[in-house]
Predict the 3D structure of the following.
Amino acid sequence: MGIAASELCRYVIRPTLLYLGRHNPTAESLLLGIAASQSELGSALHDRRGHGLYSITEPRHRALWDDYLALDPERASLVRGLASQHAFLSAPQLELTVNLRYATAIAWLLVEQHTPALPPPGDVLAMARIWKEIFHPQGRLRDFTQAWQTCVSPMNHVTC
């Protein structure tokens, strides 16, 4: 059993997006959908596809730092501030598994790096396309929409 979608949104995703200065409802929904599709909201935090809620691979994580964050020292410092002091230096990929806010920031930056504009709120199919392009190219759009229906849609009846 994973994390309740409303609690993941309220205590992890929203505060992380606010911290990064990137908060908006579509970003929240997209990250919830990605977490639902990649790990069933944390039911499986480590598998062959990657680490943590968003199943981010070590090479993707490293490339984000080398090719994106290295070009923006202020943002890199902000993201580094979410990581634990010593664990990040010895095993940065472990942060993706155990540090939900850090993993959320990295997932968001992967989206930001590859997506010029977010879809309108509630456009689940457009969010599925973003998920497929960035997080799971072999995935099917219906995998995202089914995870959305199961994990995220019920939460939309209650404010997160």
